[in-house]
């Protein structure tokens, strides 16, 4: 089995069942606080600005984050479902065993973040910023990530499935071994060195041939 065909095994979040339910999150979070063992549902989290906050064994469902900055957070064994994280600042954060499903991530800031065992599915990540991030075992599926920025990131065992990646920026990011064959990658920002070794479809290969300065001409 080739590297591009290898199955990526993602460790799932370890979130206990029957977590205490929180439906009115009016707690002020400060630097280095811990939020653990909770089901936070059907509420808003707004006006929070803290660094190095620890989130562990937490499930967020139907939560809207507004004017929130949790830089350099430690996010482990956490799930986000039907949440709006648009424009949230999670720069420099560490993610491990995190699942993000059916969420809005428009303009979310993940610069310099480390993502391990992360699955993002059925989500809208337009204009999301992953610059200088370290992504290992990251899977993005059935999502919209047009104009997202992955510039100068480190990829290892990552995969994109049925995702809109039009106009995404990948300059400075090695895509060797990354499967993008089921995605729309039109007008992505990428060079020859970055795209070398990526798994693409035959149609995608034709469109990427412009990087080599080739002109495709039918013989008849």
From TrEMBL:
Top-level taxon of the source organism: Bacteria
Gene3D superfamilies: E3 ubiquitin-protein ligase SopA
Pfam families given in the database record: Pentapeptide, Pentapeptide_4
Entries under SUPFAM superfamilies matching the protein: Pentapeptide repeat-like (SSF141571)
PANTHER family: ANTIBIOTIC RESISTANCE PROTEIN MCBG (PTHR42999), PENTAPEPTIDE REPEAT-CONTAINING PROTEIN (PTHR42999:SF1)
Protein name: Pentapeptide repeat-containing protein
